[in-house]
Design a protein that fits this description.
extended; mainly alpha; single chain; 5 helices; 124 residues
């Protein structure tokens, strides 16, 4: 049990938008040979993170989609605007109607968010 505050409210996950922890390859375990190589793999390879979420959203009836969007909007009202915009981009990648619904619920314009994202990518 920890008694040192456990880093308080700082993020304890990676990736994050608050200069929190990052992967440290020095703690990577060496592969073990069983009946072949066993190792840790990057779960992001071969996974676009959006297809499954989008498919699930599209399977929902319209009323369930609206409840989901409403729950997300209610949870995100106190989140900093920049994080709201980043998250809306993720929802949009899963399904454009999902992203647009969350943006509208938060009083944001999806077109502005997507245009800003394109400008940021172009600047990098």
């Amino acid at each position: 049990m920890r008694f040192d505050g456990n880093c308080g409210s700082a993020p304890n996950y990676e990736p994050n938008s608050f200069n929190g922890p990052v992967d440290d390859a020095t703690y990577r375990e060496r592969p073990h040979v069983v009946t072949g190589a066993v190792d840790r793999h990057d779960h992001r390879l071969g996974n676009d993170d959006y297809t499954q979420a989008g498919n699930l959203f599209r399977l929902m009836p319209a009323d369930a989609q609206q409840r989901l969007i409403g729950n997300i909007v209610a949870s995100m009202h106190s989140v900093p605007r920049r994080i709201q915009e980043l998250q809306i981009q993720h929802f949009h990648r899963a399904d454009p109607a999902d992203g647009a619904g969350v943006a509208k619920g938060l009083g944001l314009k999806i077109d502005d968010i997507l245009a800003h994202a394109q400008q940021t990518v172009a600047a990098d």
